[in-house]
Design brief:
The chain is an all-beta fold. It contains no helices and 8 strands.
Length: 98
């Protein structure tokens, strides 16, 4: 299992600034609409966690469209190789939410 510290407000109030986000690897076939997926932003090492809102299939590739619950910016289009895993829990202060 991996983890990262949340930054920003795009998933507020579920994920808050400073929360430790717990991430578990996920197989392509297990990804479902509504999952919160952690992924690397294009051309950077920044890790983001957003909700999967759409899956687009073409003959040669599947893309995943994600957006923050509280996001005012556009959605992110990513591919399976960008996905670190599924958000499975949060640690906030001394509490763990799974």
């Amino acid at each position: 299992m991996n983890s990262f510290h949340a930054r920003g407000l795009s998933m507020d109030p579920l994920i808050r600034e400073g929360d430790v986000v717990l991430v578990k690897p996920i197989k392509k076939d297990d990804i479902m609409l509504g999952d919160i997926l952690a992924f690397k932003q294009k051309d950077s090492q920044i890790i983001t966690g957003h909700r999967l809102i759409k899956v687009t299939r073409s003959p040669d590739r599947i893309s995943y469209i994600l957006q923050g619950d509280f996001s005012t910016s556009g959605a992110d289009e990513i591919f399976y190789e960008d996905i670190i895993g599924k958000v499975v829990g949060l640690q906030r202060d001394d509490r763990v939410f799974a």
